[in-house]
Design goal:
Layout: E1 15-19, E2 29-33, H1 44-53, E3 58-61, E4 67-72, E5 75-76, E6 84-91, E7 94-102, H2 108-111, E8 123-128, E9 146-149, H3 167-170, H4 177-202, H5 205-217, H6 223-232, H7 235-244, H8 247-258, H9 260-263, H10 269-278, H11 299-317, H12 326-333, E10 336-338, E11 351-353, H13 356-374, H14 380-387, E12 393-394, H15 397-404, E13 416-417, H16 419-433, H17 442-447
Parallel strand pairs: 7-8, 8-9
Antiparallel strand pairs: 1-2, 3-4, 4-6, 5-6, 6-7, 10-11, 12-13
Helix pairs in contact: 4-13, 4-16, 5-6, 5-11, 5-13, 7-11, 8-10, 8-11, 12-13
Amino acid sequence: MPRGICPGVIHSLLVVMIKQTQKSSGFYTAKTTPYCVSEPAITEVQIHQQWKKLHFPVDFITVDGTPIMVVDGGTHNLNAGPDFRNATVLINGKIEHGDVEIHQDERGWSDHGHHNDPRYKNVIVHVVTHLSKSRSFRSFQFSPNYTIVLAEPPDSETGQENDSEFWCKTEPMPSHGGELLESLGWQRIHQKARVLSQRLQNRRTEDVWYRTLLRVLGYSQNTVQMEQVTTQVPFRVASEISLHGSPENVAAFVLGLTGLAEHFDIAVPFWDIAVSQYQLQSFSYFHWRPLRSHPQNHPVLRLYLLFRNLPKLHEISQLSPNEITAQMLLRQLHTSITIPEKYQKYFPAKTASLGKSRALEVVVNLWMPFYLARNHHNADDILREWSHDLPPLPVYAALQRFIEETTWKKVLPGRQLHPLTLQGLLWLRHHYCSEKLCELCPVLQETGC
């Protein structure tokens, strides 16, 4: 019996026909159709190649009628065991992780003894191109939960097979896309507030704030390293250093703490005194990852600025939107302090400065979520109104490339965005675009495109 739609076929048998659809040209979507079976025409090696060529995520319907989405088809396993490792499947709104096994028909699962082989216990998807006539699917009690029938790939001459792209590369962007990004930005702010709320339940407020501030000042390259400073120099010690140390002593403390003094063989007596008094240890000079972009971003300068201004920064963190405007807050954070001449040659720059852009990031990533966390998210409307006065932020280089490669550039033509819009774009890119979860994308769901 030839492949194709045949009169009288049993309609309860559902299989997957992979093809490009008009609804979402940016990724492959599975369609179902009655299917007449015959002996498989392709080998398992060819099925492997076909599976690897699919542009995930892909929607499927299993042979028992269950709709699933294979978010990630897994990594091809060249050793003994399942054909693909660490696949990701979305079923009934729940993410499941497991392996994928491929056969020409479903009998291969038991014929190859996989049901008695512990190496196959994590298989969640069984991919075949053919269902045998002799036995029904439901009689295979040892088969994985989700068995799908993969149709042969379309003829290349038809032009149906195209490279996968993000949805926003192929679909027109809605006119209110900027508003959606701002809404996603607030979701990101609230998520950070929830994390802070959990930490505040078990730790002192100033300790949680201090730790988060160090992370924000570290950029992605030094986030962990800066956070580790809080274990060596807790908030109480940092406050005493900041209150009672002269500029020279603070500079010596930072050089000793960061390992620069030992690396360059510099005498820093104040650090030696602090080590004895507070039982401190220095980090290795190679502990840090100096940023390539600008000397002001070096963690040594950030730490000097922190230990010079800690009481002031802590005081600002406790203000509410009713007590300080956005512009006033930024002016308070935007500071520049000269390094003492005695130690200038050991620092990356002669001044330590928290520029306007970084001050804005401190507001968005720390001050706003911290305010919501302390007020149990009951001040959302006040904070939203307050945030309207925040100036735009320059778009990071990686995000700018992302915008230019997609139709977001029609909605976001400038190189500066409101901080909440930027947060939304970061959220979207990280959670959906980078993972190619196009059908879960809130922009797609909101617009219906």
